[in-house]
Amino acid sequence: MKRQHATHATVNPDDQECAASRSLNAIIRDWANSDGLIWLHLSKTVSAGLIALGIAMLLDLPQPRIAMTTVFVLMQPFSGMVLAKSFYRILGTAVGAIAALTLGALFVQQAELHMLVMIVWVSTCIAAAVRFRHFRWYGFVLAGYTAALIGIPNVTTPHGLFLAALTRAAEVTVGIVCSSAVSALIVPQRSSHALLRALHMRYRNFTAFAADVLCRQVDRGEFERRFADLIDEIVGFEATRIFAAFEDPAMRSCNHHLGRLNNEFMDTCARLHALHQLLKRLHASGAAPIVAATDPYFRELAALLGSPRDASFDASVDVSNLAARLRSFQASLPRRVREARKQQEHTSAESLADFDTAVELLYRFVNEWTRYSDTYVSLAGRKPIEQPRSANRYVSITNHFLVAFTFIRSATVMAIAAAFWIATDWPSGGLAVIGAALACALTSTAPNASKMAVQMALGAMMATIAGYLFTCYVYPEIDGFPLLCMTLAPVLALGAHFATRKRTTGFGVGFSVFFCLLAAPDNVATFEPALLINNGLALIASMLMAAMVFAVVFPADMPWLVERIMGDLRAQAVLACKDDRPDLNQRFQSSTHDLGSQLRMLLTRRSRRRRHALRWMLVTLEVGHAVIDLRNEAAHADYAHALHPRWCAAMKVTLEDLAQLFERSDARALDRALVSVRSATWIAQDMLKAVQPNTEKRHDMQRMLSCLHFIRTALLDKDAPFQSR
Predict the structure, then answer these.
(1) Are residues 664 and 649 in the same domain?
(2) Are residues 268 and 359 located together in one domain of the fold?
């Protein structure tokens, strides 16, 4: 026994080495998936910038620093982002060069008129960039900024305009080619892989969130916060899908598949939100018997959804098993519901309506979740799916007042800089106008434009100081391109590092871009510290002036502008009530999510106005989705008009009053909508009695009654924002 005990106590050295090796490998993997990715991005960015500088010098281009600047504006962590950005940058650069040549030819030696038309052109491009977002935004921004970059320095020397346009286009092209090649060929980080990982995490996190909601473990504030994050994920998914399509042919081939997956996820989110709202109202109204009758179904479903919480679950196998369990649960639900409903027949008609609505919403949620799971499994396994009838098109909407606001704001900032330049004849005034245009362009979609402009000004100030030190003390001591790269690499890496951080993005962009513009070497080196400081002051002044105008004169969260976007958001419920039904659900949900995401970006975090906007978005989704369900069920039950002569008129009045409520929300419109919904409910109840012997028609009537009852409870919800306007 002693010998056996000694044998068990002995530790094998090989086992210790294996354990240490596994631990070291785990640490390396964790570092490679976190900080290692940041260092990889910094290394690739600096390498691409230095390669672009070297090639531009080798080609004897007059300003190689423009090629380096292009790299730092262009580089992104994923190769798909860079390719997409490069594509639109080439288009924008070409259009901007043509615009600069055209304006220079039309307004020769007319500085004031040339600047006026240039301001209109650049402001129009920035406004169009806000209207057409994602990477189309960058194409429009470059069309305006390139025209200013080429045309403004040559406004008084038109004979050099054509040569400047050609050389600038060549320098930008070198930067585009270098950044794209380095990103795509050297340890490429694919957007497609990031997209699949994001889908995996989204499915797992949403499953856990749904289980918590069904178990009533999420309060109102937490639900709104987590649901708002889901909205941002839905909107961001569309941008990532564009990136992936640029880099991966397989992603382009399954683009329709991805669109369907996102639409089904929106449907599932809408069902979960409706369930949460109904559960909240049932508990608030004290409907204890109904809560007790439906609670076992919610608990059972939550237990089914609780299985894939482990981060290591297999995307295709476990989700497929979950979908099979959900289908089994869904198949057994009608029989169990009929038995439970018999026990509730002694209760009031209102309680029965609550029970039927809760069960119907649960059934629809399980159905949508199963469809989403099946599509997810087919995507993870690269299996074909049945082609849906709809086009799966994501619809984005931008308020026209926001577009006009962006135009006026950009034109004002540039006009102030141009007027000062013309009035004082400041040698660096042209660069100040270019800096103002750059500030307006890069902050046009920023959540806080004034804050980002201030950060860019600080970056420009640090770039000026660093440029002065390099011009006076570093460049004179350097001999040869390798030594130049060694001295520039730490400074460029520092700027790129700040640009990757969310809180210091503006500072990093300002430092990297303006250091290259001010102090990067050219083929013909010039050591003029006074000119560098003057140009740096011009850029800093233009950024600070832009920040002041953004904060004082044109803040993006102006009440009238937010109210216009809120009007567009509420108009989506009107769309659900009045628009044609084909693909209506997709258009309604995508546009509502898009507008909600825009409002979240404009309004300050943790503010009352942001919570108010979020609640309007939630009630718009809630009522609009129920209205679309009601219209679909009414179209399916086309025999209803023969059962009751007033049904069609009641439906028309109900939809019209609901649309009026979202157009002009007040107590009178709310009362009118409640009366029309109640009238349609009474008629539907009469039709239900008439079709009791027919099982299929009885189910049709019950589904329509559930939709009407849910709409009525949504209108009566004390937390709804109808009365707060």
Answers:
(1) yes
(2) yes
Q: Using an 8 Å Cβ cutoff, are 48 and 182 in contact?
A: yes
| 391 domain residue, yes or no | no
For residues 214 and 98, membership in a common domain is answered with no
Q: What is the pLDDT of residues 345-394, one digit of tens each?
A: 777 778 888 888 888 899 999 999 999 888 888 876 655 555 444 555 67
Quick: pLDDT tens for 310-347: 444 455 557 888 888 888 888 888 888 888 887 777 77
pLDDT number for residue 14: 58
> Are 220 and 344 contained in the same domain?
yes
Residues 516 and 607 in one domain: no
Q: Are 589 and 263 in contact (CB under 8 A)?
A: yes
Q: What is the pLDDT of residues 460-490, one digit of tens each?
A: 999 999 999 999 899 888 888 999 999 999 9
Output the six-digit token pair for 308: 């894939």
Q: Where in the sequence is the domain holding 607, given as residue range(s)?
A: 561-724
The pLDDT value given to residue 2: 42
Residue 306 lies in a domain: yes
Q: Which pLDDT tens digit goes with each residue over 433-466?
A: 999 998 898 888 787 889 999 999 999 999 999 9
| Residue 123 CB partners (closer than 8 Å, separation 6+) | 144, 406, 407, 408, 410, 411, 414, 440
Residues 120 and 200 in one domain: no
The confidence band for 235, taking pLDDT boundaries of 50, 70 and 90, is confident
CA dist., res. 459 & res. 515, Å (int): 9
How would you write 577-619 as a 3-class SS string? Answer: HHCCCCCHHHHHHHHHHHHHHHHHHHCCCCCHHHHHHHHHHHH
At 167, list the tokens.
Answer: 């050389």
Residue 368 lies inside a defined structural domain of this protein: yes
Alpha carbon 609 to its chain's center: 20
% of the chain with per-residue pLDDT over 70:
86
- Residue by residue, DSSP assigns 261-321 as HHHHHHHHHHHHHHHHHHHHHHHHTT-HHHHHHHHHHHHHHHHHHTGGGSTT--TTHHHHH
Tell me which residue of 705, 655, 659 sits closest to 682, measured CA to CA: 705
Is residue 268 a contact partner of residue 369, using CB atoms and an 8 Å limit?
Answer: yes
Which is nearest to 569 in space by CA: 607, 615, 601, 631?
615
Domain match, 195 and 179 both: no
Distances from the Cα of 320 to the Cα of 135, 194, 369, 479, 497, angstroms: 35, 22, 12, 64, 41
Average pLDDT score over the chain: 83
Alpha-carbon dihedral 261, 267, 270, 272, rounded to 10 degrees: -80
What DSSP designation does 387 have?
Answer: P
Could you write out the three-class secondary structure of 543-554?
Answer: HHHHHHHHHHHC
Torsion of CA 129, 449, 433, 468, to 10 degrees: -120
Domain final residue, candidates 553, 585, 607: 553
For the segment 191-210, the average pLDDT, to the nearest whole number, is 81
pLDDT on residue 420: 93
With a CB cutoff of 8 Å and minimum separation 6, the contacts of 183 are 44, 48, 75, 76, 78, 79, 82, 83
Split into its structural domains, the chain has a count of 3
> Tokens 């997209």 appear where?
195
- Chosen domain end from 506, 527, 553: 553
Question: What is the predicted pLDDT for the residue at 192?
Answer: 66
Residues 232, 185 within the same domain: no
pLDDT at 555: 87
Query: What six digits make up the tokens of 619?
Result: 């009630």
> Per-residue pLDDT averaged across 612-618, rounded?
87
Distance CA 415, CA 421 (A): 10
Residue 386 lies in a domain: no
List the CATH number of the domain containing 365: 1.20.58
